[in-house]
Specification:
The chain is mainly alpha-helical. It has 4 helices and 3 strands.
Length: 150
């Protein structure tokens, strides 16, 4: 169900107005009009030696509403995907760190202070490497820091 503004409703013709669903907002109690379904209309393919039939005003308006809703949904899905990727990468990194910590704890009882100090430096490098990997993965999936190319 797609909620429409009063401006959009006023631009529709009679046939579409009959298909609108009137509902009440539960929070504000305000009535609004909505389309139960929304379809994108493609221009007709012209037959040989004929002019193509143009879209009606109602069809053009529905296409504009479709594009607007699609853009909102696309942005939401993109953010959701980004969050899921970050969560899964962080879980994998936690598992790696836990395995490394278990190995380090077993080995550190047998090693001297200098060796454990060098391992700490390695862990810092590993953490920095993980952060770079996450940035690289986000860049790969979402097309860079600006996020506009995906």
């Amino acid at each position: 169900m797609v909620r429409l503004t009063k401006e959009e409703v006023s631009q529709f013709g009679g046939a579409v107005l009959e298909m609108l669903f009137k509902d009440k907002d539960e929070e504000t109690g305000e009535e609004y009009d909505a389309l139960l379904s929304l379809k994108y209309f493609f221009p007709a393919d012209p037959k040989p030696n004929e002019k193509p039939k143009p879209l009606t005003n109602d069809q053009q308006l529905q296409n504009n509403i479709y594009r607007k809703e699609f853009s909102k949904l696309w942005k939401y899905c993109r953010e959701e995907t980004k969050n899921r990727v970050i969560e899964s990468v962080s879980r994998v990194n936690e598992k790696r760190k836990n395995k490394n910590n278990e190995k380090i704890s077993k080995e550190s009882s047998d090693k001297e202070y200098n060796e454990s100090d060098s391992k700490m430096k390695n862990e810092e490098n590993y953490k920095n490497k993980d952060a770079k990997e996450i940035d690289t993965m986000e860049d790969y999936i979402f097309g860079g820091e600006d996020g506009k190319t995906f």
